[in-house]
Amino acid sequence: MTANSSTKKHHLTIDGRGLAQGLLEQFKLQVQELSLHHKIIPGLAVILVGDDPASQLYVATKTQRVRQMGIKSQDFYLPKQAKMPDLQQLVQKLNNDHAIHAILIQLPLPDHLSSRQIIDLINPAKDVDGLHSQNVAFLANGQPKIIPCTPAGCLYLLQQVFPAGISGKNVVVIGRSHLVGRPMAWLLMQQNATVTIAHRYTKDLALHCQRADIIIAAAGSAGLVKGGWVRPGAVVIDVGINRLPNPNAARGYDLLGDVAFDEVQGKAAAITPVPGGVGPMTVAFLIHNTIKLCYQSLEKPYPNILKI
Ligand code: NAD
Asked: Domain 148-281 maps to which CATH number in 3.10.450.50, 3.40.50.620, 3.40.50.720, 3.40.50.1000?
């Protein structure tokens, strides 16, 4: 974590990039150990359906990082008209491939495909984002086998900010998606936090947030969380990634979180920036989960990085 130079020591900007880098150094050693002692290279397969440029960019970034770790990464691109049997065939092939230990289906899928049906085709032992119904049940029951990458990354960040834990803290999770909001809430409950799950039908979201010790914003709505919503001293984790067109920006768009960073920064005790907060943690935990699944395929124990 780095102290924000403009606000001195009481307000921290959580350095997701730096924390992820620290983890990646450990993961690289684990990959080397697997290769040296067990003659095995972890293998990750990523399936992308359609030509959404944002998804393509995510996949390219993930693949680059994963390969830098010494992990074998294979990307499979299917056209946006792909049908259920095409995916079934591909997932089945990867389930049977001994060199592949982890399978990720990049979401969202085109509307005609059911993500639930497709994710449930993955062998649960290769389900790197922990979204298979069986893995969801284990997590909801408080005995996770594999934790979805983004919530795992957020929990890791919270563990750095609160080394003594978050027991009894009031947490508002904004968003109830299967990918982020719900698994996040289950994890926090497991850590004995008092959790409020907010969503697009929640009334008085500002009031819920004002009572929170921790706010986790995963709504996909740029600048939703305003300065006035945040209690002084609260901790704010911004999961949102929103692309706002800006012809003057180098990439043609600005990347904004769900939190009005400039307003909240001076009030929160700690806040994650966008970019450079949760995003790098998601990639780090994708790598973590890939290595973990590889160790599990060998029936070897894997170190518990998340203290749960
Ligand atoms: P989603 O669209 O599946 O779910 C959004 C959730 O937010 C829904 O439950 C919805 O009810 C709620 N919501 C939307 N607008 C709201 C509002 N105004 N008030 C309260 N609740 C509201 O999205 P998702 O997949 O959960 O992703 C959420 C955001 O996180 C997106 O911006 C996404 O790009 C980003 N994301 C980032 C990472 C990362 O690594 N940083 C990973 C996954 C998702």
From this structure: 3.40.50.720
